[in-house]
Amino acid sequence: MSAAVTLPLSPAEARRVLYQLTLARVFEERVLKLVSDGSIRGTTHPYVGQEAVAVGACLALRPDDLVISTHRGHGHLLAKGGDPKRLMAELFGKATGYGGGKGGTQHMADFAIGHLGSNGITGGGIPIGTGAALSAQMRGSGQVVAVFFGDGATNQGTFHESLNLAALWRLPAVYVCENNLYAMSTPHHEACAIEHIADRAAAYGMPGVRADGMDVLAVAAAMRPAVERARAGRGPTLIECKTYRFLGHSKSDQRVYRSREEEATWRDRDPIARLRAAVLEQALVSSAELDAIARDAVAVVDEAVTFAQSSPFPELQDVTAGVFSDDPCAS
Ligand SMILES: Cc1ncc(C[n+]2csc(CCOP(=O)(O)OP(=O)(O)O)c2C)c(N)n1
Questions:
Q1: CA of 190 to the centre of ligand 1 (A)
Q2: 283: phi > 0 → left, psi -120 to 50 → alpha, else beta; which?
Q3: Could you give the percent of the chain with pLDDT greater than 90?
Q4: Distance in angstroms (rounded) separating the CA atoms of residues 135 and 266
Q5: For atom 4 of ligand 1, which residue has the closest CA?
Q6: How many other CB atoms sit within 10 Å of the CB of residue 184?
Q7: Which one of 41, 114, 130, 230 is CB 3.0 to 4.6 Å from 162, fit for a cystine?
Q8: Cα separation of 262 and 254, whole Å?
Q9: Strands 182-183 and 173-179, bridge-based pairing
């Protein structure tokens, strides 16, 4: 396994971070099973392998800070403190889900915890997150917005327009690119002439930072000064997290565009295995506690599945409820 994560953490923090990483992993693996057996209909974009980015980024945020997510968004929602039951129920299309069962995997939000929504449009969340940062600035709320997106999204106009305005207006945003090397089957080097997306920051006049997206603490360490800078009114930062999705783009992807050797190299950098090894080596958490963390995550996901299965489908009369706002000016 490649080099260990950069501790220190207190034992309690180590347990919390490991739990969050494990919960995201167990949740996604269960979703894939449920998709395979037909319990969950439609597609899903698994986050397995990328957990350190969401968890590391959220570690650097305050509870009232905001995040905006992508089509690969279950991990972001859970890391921001989302409810696994409502998330699972949404995937089952049930009335108790985040979107009342009508949005599904790519259309979930939880404003109460500062999650502004996932988005099925590649790059679609970037201007929305930028607008939220403008709102935070105008309201003087002191909130920072973490905007998540993939490497493919950085070739969209929305990325360039948003980062330009955010830098110009010194908006309190942190742009977190999850560079997992592929946009569906297109490798980054076939879509972009430069190797490091972080280098694009120079074009807008903001700092560009590269982070090991397979190391939760490296992500948090890159985020902290960026969040501080944003909160102090000094403007946005672009953070490129080098990461990898262990599985296909979506459930039907046979991964013919990449080698099993490449996958094995990245699996060797599994963010959960690395943190587990590091905390054991420093005797921060015992192996019995690690087992308990894994059991807790499985129990929470079991409970979420039971909740989703036993929840009702939405009523026909509610088909348009939540589609339009009755009060467009509501905050
Ligand atoms: C505007 C738009 N174009 C194309 C698509 C189809 N699409 C869905 S996901 C995806 C790849 C996105 O890649 P990236 O931004 O790198 O995110 P990742 O899937 O790697 O997390 C594409 C092209 C889309 N959803 N929206």
A1: 15
A2: left
A3: 92
A4: 39
A5: 122
A6: 13
A7: 130
A8: 15
A9: unpaired
